[in-house]
Write a structure and sequence with these properties.
Elements lengths: L2 H16 L3 H37 L2 H7 L1 H24 L4 H9 L6 H13 L2 H10 L10 H34 L3 H21 L7
Helix pairs in contact: 1-8, 2-6, 2-7, 2-8, 2-9, 3-4, 3-7, 4-9
């Protein structure tokens, strides 16, 4: 793989990642509610999902979902339900700074494992991710060279960019909460919850033919 190919991949990946999606919205919300430190566990979950998605595509799972209406629908509706659940939870959140501080003092702040799993599951239950990588990655794979090292290289680049972008969003969420005082986390939760519900709705109407 040439340097030009890798730079082109990195640029396209950055554009795709920076466009707000479920994991980015969760990074924003986690940053506002728990701070950047704990939001990093969610970022780790999203990065882990990148390797799962790209690994699945490398062994043909993306092609299976593209060919099978049944399995595509199964993954899609699991993703719709989970996104809708998270959106409703954020909309119902009281999200104030005072409440967050009380929870932290009482030791009831969200566990690292829960934050990790939330971001991980959001990504791996979204069939659009598998189809996206199935269409996107082969354009940067040299067919005449061993493919496994190429997939690993692209996965590392994608995951690194993903982490950096989510870190920026989590920092933005943390700073916004401070700027907006006690209502900061509340409004960010409302914003992210509404956006996640909108994404759930768009996924519900998503068809393979439009991929």
């Amino acid at each position: 793989m040439s340097l030009t190919t890798l730079l082109a991949f990195a640029l396209v990946a950055f554009i795709g990642i920076a466009t707000p999606g479920p994991t980015v919205l969760l990074a924003l919300s986690n940053g506002s509610r728990f701070g950047v430190g704990r939001a990093a566990f969610g970022m780790a979950g999203a990065v882990a999902s990148d390797f799962v998605l790209i690994g699945a595509v490398s062994v043909g799972l993306g092609a299976l979902l593209a060919a099978s209406e049944f399995w595509f629908a199964v993954v899609k509706w699991i993703g719709v339900a989970y996104l809708a659940f998270l959106g409703i939870m954020l909309l119902r959140s009281k999200g104030s700074l005072d409440e967050a501080l009380r929870e932290a003092a009482a030791g009831r702040s969200r566990s690292a494992r829960a934050i990790f799993l939330k971001s991980f599951l959001v990504a791996v239950t979204n069939p659009k991710g598998y189809l996206f990588f199935s269409a996107f990655l082969p354009q940067f794979i040299a067919p005449n060279a061993p493919q496994a090292p190429q997939f690993v290289t692209l996965a590392l680049i994608f995951a690194t960019i993903d982490f950096i972008v989510m870190l920026a969003y989590a920092t933005l969420g943390s700073q916004a909460m401070r700027a907006l005082k006690t209502n900061g986390a509340l409004w960010l939760d409302r914003l992210c919850g509404g956006a996640l519900l909108a994404l759930a709705g768009s996924l519900a109407f998503y068809r393979k033919a439009s991929a």
